[in-house]
Amino acid sequence: MVPKLSRRPLRRSADGVVTKGTIGHVHDWTEKTEDLARAVVGYAEQRLRLRPVPLDAPLAEEELSERAGRTITPEGIGGRAALEVFAEVLAPACISIDHPRHFSFIPCAPTPAAMLFDLVVGASSIYGGSWLEGAGAVHAENEALEWLAGLAGLPATSGGVFVQGGTIANVSALVAARHAARHAARHAARHAARAAGGGEPTRWVVATSAEAHSSVSSAAGAMDVDILGVPMDAAGRLAGDALEASLEAEARSGSGRRVFAVVATAGTTNLGIVDDLESVARVAKRAGLWFHVDGAYGAAALAAPSARHLFAGIEHADSLVVDPHKWLFAPFDCAALIYRRPELARAAHAQHAGYLEPLRTGDDWNPSDFALQLTRRARGLPFWFSLACHGTDAYSAAIERTLEVARHAAAAVRRKSYLDLVFEPMLSVVAFERRGWGAEQYHAWSKELLESGTAFVVPTTHNGKVVIRLAIVNPRSTEEDVDAVLTSLG
Ligand SMILES: *Cc1c(COP(=O)(O)O)cnc(C)c1O
């Protein structure tokens, strides 16, 4: 049964807008709004200042329901009350991703400057999709993208956009790659006999290794393209030799499929392995493939002098992903997607409609044109602001600090008789086993660690075995934080 709506008589202002008398129009700035501003900004400031940050933990739906009560009602519960529900009930049921003992997945440790500026972006009503509407914001975002492109050694003519995450970035890059390959195939078909290699293949294929992020197979699924799985070398890396062998086997098979791109990972999510980018780039170039580098997590370490050498070859990327919301201290959500030839991405992604044509008058830089998106928040601005405040040297130092703590973790694991390192860390992910434990023990330990507010560490699997994994991207995580976790395993 559809419940009856409130029959309270509605009041209308002179211009006919429905009001509730007390609060005025929802868009008015009233005394109540003034009071709410103080409360909300005060809350944000307090949360930013908190040391230590509470770890917090989720609650069951029934419990949250009971504690929070009904908050969306016809009359509204009022700003102060809604904020109180958030502060007292909802926020404590969300794990703080910036807690120094949050080592699960890939955490996020935004700088106070970046988080503060997120408030400003929210308050500024900026449309970040086009130059016409958001020129100032787009200019600043582009400067931040330029810094990243420069770190990777991409040419000054490269460019891109900040999108929601590495997932959207990967699919957007692959859509651009396939678009370019399809265009080339059609062109060849028009100008040469099909036998000469022109024309559309039966299936499009992207080559990658089994350690590639799950979003790559998700992108392939969404695009309805196949994946050519390339075996990894002994170090778990995708390398040129194996790629070449897989491409040759594919060509010999006579399947009629065509490989259009290879995805290399610059820092796998599970273990932080950087593929052999140099040799993959060489083979990709020879085979005419689009070379996509997924550095969503790891490519931030380009800014760290001690890790930079691992990325040799990244300068050949046709497209590159780096998530500032992972290891570059920006708040969610922020992923940088950079193309060597942005015009190829624009050809694939720019949307056309009568009402959008006013945006297409010149060669303006419209960020929406470079990914699967239209409306967009200027989500690169908090990252830009923090970079501008602190300078890039401070970023290098902060990333180096996390690498230092990761090296400490690996050394400490080696020293403990009850732990075995799974893999010598290349970046800031440290994976290890607890001798004698099975899946159940790992999961029970992880649960207890969170419930006691000690740390947040979820196990992962490697080669079919459950193992512990620490992802260290927070410069406020210390050697002592790591030691506390290792000791709890004793
Ligand atoms: C995290 C990650 C992604 C996905 O990024 P989201 O921002 O979570 O969508 C893709 N690739 C790699 C290597 C990652 O670590």
User: Largest sheet, order of strands side by side?
Assistant: 3-9-8-7-6-4-5
Q: How can the largest sheet be summarized?
A: 7 strands, mixed
Percent of residues in beta strands? 5-15%
Number of helices: 15
Helicity level, as a percent range?
40-55%
| Succession of helices and strands | EEHHHHHEHEHEHEHEEHEHHHEEHEEH
The CATH class label of the largest domain is: Alpha Beta
Count of the separate structural domains: 3
Q: What ligand species are in this complex? A: pyridoxal-5'-phosphate
Distance between the termini: 58 Å
Q: Give the radius of gyration.
A: 25 Å
Shape: globular
CATH architectural arrangement of the largest domain: 3-Layer(aba) Sandwich
Class by alpha and beta content: alpha/beta
Total number of strands:
13
What's the mean pLDDT score?
A: 94
Predict the CATH topology of the largest domain. Answer: Aspartate Aminotransferase, domain 2
CATH level-4 homologous superfamily of the largest domain = Type I PLP-dependent aspartate aminotransferase-like (Major domain)
Would you identify the regions where 5 or more consecutive residues have pLDDT less than 50? none
Outline the structure in words.
The protein has 15 helices and 13 strands. It has 490 residues and is α/β, with parallel strands linked by helices. It folds into three domains: 1-96, no CATH class; 121-390, Aspartate Aminotransferase, domain 2 (3-Layer(aba) Sandwich); 392-487, Aspartate Aminotransferase, domain 1. A seven-stranded mixed β-sheet has the order 3-9-8-7-6-4-5, with helices on both faces. Strands 10-11-13-12 form a four-stranded antiparallel β-sheet, with helices on one face. Helix 6 (166-191) crosses helix 11.
